């Protein structure tokens, strides 16, 4: 077993075993600490995946998917299912982001357990969710991908329903049922592909080899629907605001930070890769919906009156930019989507942490009851300002690259439709600034409301420890976008190559 | 080496700013801790700005041939974004102006934002973030100045918008400050929609965002015109051109030194500078220049007329900035970036001087309203004479700086009008020239009015004991008076003029083109200046207690409200946008989500109905089972028995 194979196994096995360990550890606080340590180990393994030979040195035409490391074992020989994992420049940043956010969430839980259940159970569920998400990003077999995609669903349901806000059960049910609908379509899509191609190997399938045009159109439609629910793409987004608002802070962070990325990653790797013909056919519709998401998402935020709900809806707009990048089917657009994915995960994760901190301190999330935060808690207000500014896409911070270059890619496609979409998306960028400035004006400026007046100025060490990495990443990715895109050029070019 | 200096130019204040942000913002409790943080913040701010000034001066001394350095920042699918600087004489000169004004503002603020003896005990200026934000602001502007790549320029461009937002909202006692700050960021951000699209068009067309590559690429005319028009939207936002100028007067809610910074060196200068940076593109797009000419002329007159009717000292200066920016964009429109830059530099000097002097007045009097000033000349002689120099330069009194630079603008506009020399059509020249001449009258009028109302006549608040400001405020004002008075004469100095005229090719034959002109055409503006000043003076002589602006009659409220363009903006943009937002929110919640919830309810209802159907008493249930068995048996016989 080579180092790469070992790491691939370790990334999945560590949190899986860790979840069991956490569940059986007798004392609650000790269990949470064990969970954090396990998540930390997973992060180390995830980062190390970048080591070794990442060469792109195949002779002849480069294959469409060439992972740095791969692990290919028979799983259910009777059904010809394989346990096929691999990591490359498309998936590695997402793997690391997932591992990082899980560490931060577990660490945060050591400090504070939301009401509703034991911290031990919460940490164990977080680790199970991590296994599912990491597996989704690493799977190179369609069926395996589907299995991991589904692993996430129930523990996430439990997190929302167990530790969420007042209306948690309804929100959790809606989340589970809605995304389950997507999963059903995904399953059908997977079997349409596997039945016709006779293999579930993503590397072999990428490029649409062996699939007729009709199958590709059908497969793309089914897969895109499934991923559009997860991403989410307007108008299939309405599970998201409820789930994000009702979930506990750590749940919201994982949901917004990485869970949504399963949709966009699946769209790029599976839907576009496996059915390029279908992608070309559906690209205009996808682009229109993506821009609709941007505009609708920002407008709803502009009229929103709850802090967490506003941030949740902002995800709809941000993911719209990511999907617009994918819809252009150009190398620029897909790279913009990749970095947009990571930036959104980092920044929105931070925003949900901060929103949770504000809600914990003031006991309310209603914007009308929040004002003057900079008077009583200048540091918290400053951090909220930083996160909001990063989220509105200030150049020099992480959010800029994905949004600006989604617009650039749409301009680059040329033609009336894509130019219009670019203009509308750019206007959506201005609307994004409008609602975040409105948020800051409401929450941080002015005289403190009674709810804000009792806020103590200090921040807990655990809070700073959870937020600092995200802040630094938002800055670092903004200044050095190559951190995310440095390894993506090869896979993206290969993917765009099969699209032609 | 020169390239390294170019990198150091924004880096020095950037580091000072980032370190400054880490200082405790508002240390409650011991006063010593606060003092230490404040002292550290002052040190960082002043050292950052002074360091930038030293680097800029070194750069000015060294720069000869244009220097260009670049390395790939990121390659996004064949579109190259580079990190690099592009240094020429113009960049060095503007950098010196920016750094000098920033230094003056940093020093001045130490005294201006100090808790006075009469201030509330709870008053807390939160100096560390303030000074750090000024440093960041300076760094962002210097980044715009040296950037060799459009995306890099955009970084500085937008960070500047953010810093202006933070600094305008600094004064926590003013209820209108947050709204003004938000407006400044948002209005410029709306303009930046166009700016980003323009950059995208140019970058996609050239395959690179490096300015040198974009300039060298052979774009199609249609693309060039579209891109330039789009860029102009961003320029209008930053440089406060009609119709995106509305944020600038409101931005007066910021502390006065910040107004000096925004109006003299950063923000508003960035738009004009960006156009000069890309001027070869605009030269090839006359339609865009014509649009710029119309916008510039409108802005020029609009700002000047609005300035005539203000009672707030700072608002007069703010509207005068709008008007002077009109001169600069007018000069660009008639194809004279050198004249525009010349006016930009002199304007930086005299407007910084005027704002800092106005700050001294406000500091002493405690109000910004001119109707409550008057007669300050005797008690504040230094401030008075510095204001005289500043207003003289603003109005264009020979031989102060503004006279020469405004004349340079008017001369090229005249040439464009009479001889059709500019790249844009001759009517643009006429428009700019006539607007510029009318602007001279108006500027002289409101400058005279300001001087008379604030400094001469009787004191209207007799209880006050105004005095010249403390040294930290006095010296920046005094030192800025020097360039405000003399910078115009630099137009006669060959190296200075050449740097502005030939930023790219410094070694053209001398004497071909001139920055300043001495000739009979200087008379016309001078006469117009006298007319304007005499009109204001005559009105004041007749009745010293009254406001000369009363002569405007019913027009005064219209002018004072900036032609009510704020209301127009509110009615056409803000209100529809918020109404649309509410509608979309309702639609999204009731429509899209309603469909989802509705289908959920429908399924449950259906399930419930089916469940009820299945709930039956034993006889009926047994009957149903029998009937079912019969049916299946029948089917089996019919289907299975047929062969």
Q: If you had to describe this structure to a student in words, what would you say it looks like?
A:
The complex is a heterodimer of chains A (500) and B (643). By secondary structure, chain A is mostly helical. Chain A has one domain. Chain A has a two-stranded antiparallel sheet. Chain A is built from 22 helices and two strands. Chain A starts with a helix and ends with a helix. Chain A has helices at residues 3-24, 28-48, 92-111, 119-138, 142-151, 153-163, 168-197, 202-205, 213-230, 239-246, 249-274, 276-302, 307-328, 331-362, 373-376, 378-391, 398-413, 415-443, 450-453, 461-479, 482-485, 489-499, and strands at 69-76, 81-87. Chain B is an all-alpha fold. Chain B has two domains: 2-560, no CATH class; 572-640, no CATH class. Chain B is 71% helix and 3% strand. Chain B has 24 helices and two strands. Chain B has a two-stranded antiparallel ribbon. In chain B, helix 1 runs antiparallel to helix 2 (31-62) and helix 8 (221-238) packs antiparallel against helix 11 (268-277). The longest helix of chain B has 50 residues, at 565-614. Chain B is elongated, with a radius of gyration of 31 Å. Chain B starts with a helix and ends with a helix. The relative contact order of chain B is 0.08. At the A-B interface, helix 7, helix 12, helix 14, helix 16 and helix 17 of A face strand 1, helix 5, helix 6 and helix 23 of B.
Short description:
The complex is a heterodimer of chains A (500) and B (643). In chain A, strands 1-2 form a two-stranded antiparallel ribbon.
Main attributes of the structure:
heterodimer, A: 500 residues, mainly alpha, two-stranded antiparallel ribbon, 22 helices, 2 strands, 3% strand, globular, B: 643 residues, 2 domains, two-stranded antiparallel sheet, 24 helices, 71% helix
């Amino acid at each position: 077993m080579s180092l790469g194979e070992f790491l691939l196994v370790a990334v999945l096995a560590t949190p899986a075993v860790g979840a069991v360990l956490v569940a059986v550890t007798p004392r609650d606080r000790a269990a949470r600490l064990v969970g954090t340590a396990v998540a930390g180990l997973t992060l180390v393994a995830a980062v190390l995946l970048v080591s070794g030979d990442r060469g792109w040195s195949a002779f002849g035409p480069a294959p469409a998917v060439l992972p740095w490391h791969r692990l290919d074992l028979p799983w259910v020989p009777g059904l010809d299912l394989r346990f096929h994992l691999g990591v490359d420049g498309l998936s590695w940043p997402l793997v690391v982001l997932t591992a990082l956010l899980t560490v931060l969430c577990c660490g945060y839980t050591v400090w504070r357990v939301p009401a509703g259940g034991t911290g031990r159970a919460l940490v164990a569920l977080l680790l199970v969710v991590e296994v599912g998400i990491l597996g989704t990003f690493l799977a190179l077999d369609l069926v395996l991908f589907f299995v991991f995609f589904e692993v996430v669903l129930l523990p996430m349901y439990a997190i929302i329903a167990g530790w969420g806000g007042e209306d948690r059960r309804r929100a959790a049910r809606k989340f589970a049922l809605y995304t389950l609908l997507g999963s059903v379509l995904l399953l059908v899509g997977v079997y349409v592909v596997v039945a016709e191609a006779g293999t579930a190997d993503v590397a072999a399938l990428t490029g649409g080899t062996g699939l007729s045009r009709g199958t590709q159109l059908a497969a793309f439609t089914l897969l895109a629907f499934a991923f559009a629910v997860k991403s989410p793409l307007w108008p299939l987004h309405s599970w998201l605001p409820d789930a994000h608002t009702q979930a506990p802070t750590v749940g919201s962070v994982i949901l917004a930070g990485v869970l949504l990325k399963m949709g966009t990653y699946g769209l790029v790797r599976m839907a576009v890769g496996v059915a390029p013909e279908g992608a070309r056919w559906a690209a205009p519709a996808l682009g229109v919906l993506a821009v609709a998401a941007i505009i609708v998402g920002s407008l709803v935020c502009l009229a929103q009156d709850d802090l967490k709900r506003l941030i949740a809806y902002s995800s709809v707009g941000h993911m719209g930019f990511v999907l617009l990048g994918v819809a252009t089917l150009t190398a620029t657009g897909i790279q913009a989507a990749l970095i947009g994915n990571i930036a959104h995960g980092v920044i929105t994760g931070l925003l949900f942490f901060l929103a949770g901190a504000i809600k914990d301190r003031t006991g309310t999330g209603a914007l009308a009851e929040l004002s003057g935060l900079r008077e009583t808690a200048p540091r918290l207000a400053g951090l909220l300002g930083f996160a909001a500014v990063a989220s509105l896409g200030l150049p020099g911070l992480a959010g800029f690259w994905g949004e600006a270059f989604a617009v650039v890619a749409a301009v680059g496609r040329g033609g009336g439709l894509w130019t219009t979409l670019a203009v509308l998306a750019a206007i959506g960028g201005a609307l994004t600034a409008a609602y975040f400035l409105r948020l800051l004006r409401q929450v941080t400026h002015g005289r403190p409301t009674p709810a804000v007046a009792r806020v103590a100025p200090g921040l807990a060490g655990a809070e700073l420890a959870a937020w600092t990495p995200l802040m630094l990443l938002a800055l670092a990715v903004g200044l050095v976008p190559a951190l995310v895109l440095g390894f993506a050029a090869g896979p993206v070019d290969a993917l765009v190559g099969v699209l032609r | 080496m020169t390239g390294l200096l170019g990198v150091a130019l924004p880096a020095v204040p950037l580091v000072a700013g980032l370190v400054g942000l880490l200082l405790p913002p508002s240390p409650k409790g011991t006063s010593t801790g606060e003092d230490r943080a404040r002292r550290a913040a002052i040190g960082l701010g002043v050292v950052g700005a002074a360091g930038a000034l030293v680097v800029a001066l070194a750069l000015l001394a060294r720069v000869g041939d244009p220097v260009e350095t670049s390395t790939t920042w990121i390659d996004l699918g064949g579109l190259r974004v580079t990190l690099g600087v592009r240094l020429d004489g113009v960049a060095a000169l503007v950098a010196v102006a920016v750094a000098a004004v920033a230094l003056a503002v940093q020093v001045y603020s130490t005294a201006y934002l100090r808790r006075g003896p009469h201030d509330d005990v709870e008053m807390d200026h939160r100096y560390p973030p303030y000074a750090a934000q000024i440093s960041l602001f300076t760094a962002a502007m210097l980044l715009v100045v040296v950037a060799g790549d459009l995306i890099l320029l955009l970084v500085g461009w937008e960070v500047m918008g953010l810093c202006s937002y933070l600094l305008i909202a600094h004064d926590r006692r003013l209820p209108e400050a947050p709204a003004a700050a938000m407006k400044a960021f948002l209005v410029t951000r709306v303009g930046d929609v166009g700016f980003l699209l323009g950059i995208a068009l140019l970058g996609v067309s050239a395959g690179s965002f490096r300015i040198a590559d974009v300039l060298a690429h052979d774009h199609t005319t249609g693309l060039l015109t579209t891109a330039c028009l789009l860029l102009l939207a961003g320029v209008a936002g930053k440089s406060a051109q009609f119709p995106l100028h509305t944020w600038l007067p409101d931005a007066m809610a910021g502390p006065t030194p910040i107004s000096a910074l925004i109006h003299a060196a950063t923000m508003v200068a960035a738009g004009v500078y960006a156009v000069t940076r890309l001027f070869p593109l605009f030269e090839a797009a006359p339609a865009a220049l014509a649009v710029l000419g119309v916008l510039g002329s409108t802005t020029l007159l609009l700002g000047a007329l609005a300035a005539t009717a203000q009672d707030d000292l700072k608002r007069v200066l703010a509207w005068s900035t709008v008007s002077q920016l009109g001169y600069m964009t007018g000069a660009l429109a008639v194809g004279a970036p050198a004249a525009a830059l010349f006016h930009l530099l002199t304007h930086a000097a005299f407007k910084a001087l005027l704002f800092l002097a106005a700050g001294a007045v406000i500091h002493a009097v405690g109000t910004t309203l001119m109707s409550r000033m008057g007669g300050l000349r005797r008690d504040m002689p230094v401030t008075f004479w510095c204001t005289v120099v500043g207003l003289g330069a603003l109005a264009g009194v020979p031989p102060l700086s503004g006279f020469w630079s405004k004349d340079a603008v008017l001369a090229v506009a005249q040439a464009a009008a009479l001889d059709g020399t500019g790249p844009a059509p001759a009517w643009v020249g006429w428009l700019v020239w006539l607007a510029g001449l009318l602007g001279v009258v108006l500027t002289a009028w409101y400058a005279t009015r300001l001087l008379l109302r604030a400094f001469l006549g009787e004191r209207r608040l007799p209880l006050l004991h105004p005095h010249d400001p403390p040294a930290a405020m006095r010296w920046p004002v005094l030192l800025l008076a020097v360039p405000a008075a003399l910078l115009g004469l630099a137009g006669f100095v060959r190296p200075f003029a050449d740097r502005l005229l030939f930023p790219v090719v410094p070694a053209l034959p001398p004497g071909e083109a001139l920055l300043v002109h001495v000739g009979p055409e200087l008379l016309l503006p001078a006469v117009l200046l006298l007319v304007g000043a005499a009109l204001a003076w005559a009105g004041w002589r007749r009745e010293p207690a009254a406001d000369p602006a009363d002569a405007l009659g019913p027009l005064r409220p219209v002018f004072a409200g900036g032609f009510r363009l704020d209301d127009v903006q509110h009615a056409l943009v803000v209100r529809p946008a918020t109404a649309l937002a509410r509608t979309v929110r309702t639609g999204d919640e009731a429509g899209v989500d309603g469909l989802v919830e509705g289908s959920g309810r429908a399924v449950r209802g259906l399930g419930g109905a089916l469940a009820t159907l299945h709930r039956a008493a034993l006889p009926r249930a047994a009957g149903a089972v029998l009937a079912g068995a019969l049916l299946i048996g029948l089917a089996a016989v019919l289907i299975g028995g047929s062969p």
